[in-house]
What we know:
Order of helices and strands: EEEHEEEEHEHHH
Largest sheet: 8 strands, mixed
CATH topology: VC0467-like
Radius of gyration: 17 Å
Shape: globular
Number of strands: 8
Amino acid sequence: xxxxxxxxxxxxxxxxxxxxxxxxxxxxxxxxxxxxxxxxxxxxxxxxxxxxxxxxxxxxxxxxxxxxxxxxxxxxxxxxxxxxxxxxxxxxxxxxxxxxxxxxxxxxxxxxxxxxxxxxxxxxxxxxxxxxxxxxxxxxxxxxxxxxxxxxxxxxxxxxxxxxxxxxxxxxxxx
Length: 175
């Protein structure tokens, strides 16, 4: 929402990947890291590619553990030891095996994006922020999760709710 008061999350679109009574975590979907692409990062990490990896940007997943990588991907790739099924058809993997799969012709997920860091909340924090109208929620689709129109994902998410940006106010309240 406007007026969140934290520039790291201004107009951020975050996909919640996990939520328990103790914590919640997710990845920002619309913040590419300047100058860092998936093939470039794979090369820096020594992951050999058997295919031409699309030049997708590496994403800023959030301010927590920014040196750690996560891959959000379609569930056509799942490693029973390292992948977490987030939702039907969407998984999260944070180990090298997904990087090798992304560089492989026959194991590559249909859609995937690599993010550095994640967004996290402590026990009850996300629920409190939702009650304070800090965040809006909507159901994701593949365009929102894996689309490349990063500049418009925030407005795309609002449109899924039937809202346009000019209708929002930085002042929260309850009727």
